[in-house]
């Protein structure tokens, strides 16, 4: 029985993970769950999965859970997430909260040399170089990527040696606004940006997909996870979202992973790897129904998110932390209708231009830059 901790169990990835566990009760047991504002859903999950520990984001949620489950160990807020990262009984921790808030728990789990199923790409963007340093110190810790592209790359890399990798090819759906001009994007409404053509995901990542910032974050995530130079990480728009990403080897062979657009496969694989198991929760792909697969260049002029991320990634040091934090707040401001769609790019660009690059030595450095960037954006663009 593998004991699983899910950070962000009330979210899109979290609920998919519970669906995987629901279908494999003989293999997986929930040890801990966490939610932020949605305590009502967390309560339902507690009833169904009987975790030993939970963490919740709000005082109100804390009160309600304590009232209903007086004997349950309940933590709260940022400290609560960290506590769930420190559980020695854990076998696998799925980090699927949204944003760089996931970093501390990830760091704790690495120190305990756990398996980390990592959906939370912002952690790898904001803190990748530090996380990699830590992974060298704790060699038995392992990160298995859950982000579909990185799971596909992870799987593709198994068919060759690292030294023989020529390029990583990350595929992108192109987002909701593929083919649109800058002019057409000026007055985009929040509701329009929240309609993703292929994937059903949380609000923040759906906006990130529409700006291509998501793909930019994924480029940095790939660089940090797989140690491949930015020059050798390519992005291709693949509107069908069937090929989840590919690896090109030196001999010209391109290996990719195909599958339905459903996060349950990469989640389950991160739990069962190196085994691959059947599950009623997983669907197979009928290529005869798909018929054709197409690939095209992304439009980098309109969707500046991609190049901003390449720029931040190549500069390295504290710059990816700034890119990530500025984007998190920009998306929040857009979702709250405080700024227009294209201003998301302006905020990231200005925050990066304003930032004086610093070395990242430890977690405190990351948190300091993360907070300073958030404050800077709020001060300049309002709350
Ligand atoms: P959701 O918005 O659906 O869920 C986010 C989860 O994090 C919820 O459980 C939410 O709690 C919790 N949360 C929100 N704010 C905080 C906070 N301040 N402190 C602690 N917990 C918080 O996001 P997704 O599931 O879509 O995405 C999660 C992560 O996975 C992201 O990093 C995303 O980039 C990545 N990812 C997601 C994919 C997807 O298909 N959804 C695909 C690939 C990667 P509550 O809802 O209770 O407030
Ligand atoms: Mg992805």
What secondary-structure arrangement, pairings included, does this model have?
Layout: E1 2-7, H1 12-22, E2 28-34, H2 39-49, E3 53-56, H3 59-68, E4 73-76, H4 77-85, E5 92-95, H5 103-111, E6 115-118, H6 121-137, E7 142-145, H7 148-157, E8 165-172, H8 182-185, H9 190-193, H10 203-211, H11 213-226, E9 233-237, E10 243-249, E11 254-258, H12 264-272, H13 287-290, H14 305-315, H15 319-335, H16 343-354, H17 363-381
Parallel strand pairs: 1-2, 1-5, 2-3, 3-4, 5-6, 6-7, 8-9
Antiparallel strand pairs: 8-10, 10-11
Helix pairs in contact: 4-5, 5-6, 6-11, 6-15, 7-11, 10-15, 11-14, 14-15, 15-16, 15-17
Bound molecules: NADPH dihydro-nicotinamide-adenine-dinucleotide phosphate and magnesium ion.
Kindly describe this structure.
It contains 17 helices and 11 strands. The chain has 383 residues and is α/β, with parallel strands linked by helices. Among the domains are: 144 residues, 3-Layer(aba) Sandwich (Rossmann fold); 118 residues, no CATH class. Helix 5 runs parallel beside helix 6. The protein is globular and about 55 Å long. It starts with a strand and ends with a helix. Bound molecules: NADPH dihydro-nicotinamide-adenine-dinucleotide phosphate and magnesium ion (MG).
CATH architecture of the domain at 2-145: 3-Layer(aba) Sandwich
Q: Tell me the CATH superfamily of the domain at 2-145.
A: NAD(P)-binding Rossmann-like Domain
Widest sheet, order of strands: 4-3-2-1-5-6-7
Low-confidence stretches: none
- What string gives the helices and strands in order? EHEHEHEHEHEHEHEHHHHEEEHHHHHH
Question: What's the level 1 CATH class of the domain at 2-145?
Answer: Alpha Beta
Bulk shape: globular
> What is the CATH fold-level name of the domain at 2-145?
Rossmann fold
């Amino acid at each position: 029985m593998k004991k699983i901790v899910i950070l962000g169990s009330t979210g899109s990835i979290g609920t998919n993970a519970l669906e995987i566990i629901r279908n494999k009760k003989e293999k997986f047991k929930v040890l801990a769950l966490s939610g932020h504002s949605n305590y009502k859903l967390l309560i339902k999950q507690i009833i169904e999965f009987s975790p030993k520990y939970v963490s919740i984001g709000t005082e109100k949620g804390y009160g309600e859970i304590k009232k209903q489950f007086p004997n349950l160990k309940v933590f709260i807020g940022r400290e609560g997430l960290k506590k769930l990262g420190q559980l020695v009984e854990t076998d696998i921790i799925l980090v699927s909260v949204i944003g760089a808030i996931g970093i501390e728990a990830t760091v704790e789990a690495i120190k305990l040399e756990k398996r980390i199923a990592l959906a939370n790409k912002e952690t790898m963007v904001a803190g990748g170089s530090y996380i990699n340093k830590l992974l060298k110190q704790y060699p038995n810790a392992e990160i298995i990527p859950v982000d579909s592209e990185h799971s596909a790359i992870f799987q593709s890399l198994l068919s060759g040696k690292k030294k023989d990798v020529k390029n990583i090819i990350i595929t992108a759906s192109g987002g909701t606004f593929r083919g649109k001009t800058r002019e057409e994007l000026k007055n985009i409404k929040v509701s329009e940006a929240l309609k993703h053509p292929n994937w059903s995901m949380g609000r923040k990542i759906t906006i990130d997909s529409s700006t291509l910032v998501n793909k930019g974050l994924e480029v940095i995530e790939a660089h940090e996870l797989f140690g491949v130079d930015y020059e050798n990480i390519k992005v291709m728009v693949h509107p069908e979202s069937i090929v989840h990403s590919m690896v090109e080897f030196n001999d010209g062979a391109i290996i990719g992973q195909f599958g339905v657009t459903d996060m349950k496969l990469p989640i389950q694989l991160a739990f069962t790897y190196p085994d691959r198991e059947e599950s009623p929760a997983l669907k197979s792909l009928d290529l005869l129904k798909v018929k054709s697969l197409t690939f095209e260049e992304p439009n980098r002029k309109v969707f500046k998110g991609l190049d901003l991320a390449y720029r931040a990634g190549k500069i390295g040091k504290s710059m990816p932390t700034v890119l990530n934090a500025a984007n998190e707040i920009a998306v929040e401001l857009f979702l709250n209708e405080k700024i227009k769609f294209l201003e998301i790019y302006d905020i990231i660009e200005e925050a990066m231009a304003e930032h004086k690059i610093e070395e990242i030595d430890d977690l405190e450095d990351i948190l300091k830059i993360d907070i300073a960037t958030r404050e800077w954006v709020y001060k300049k663009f309002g709350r």
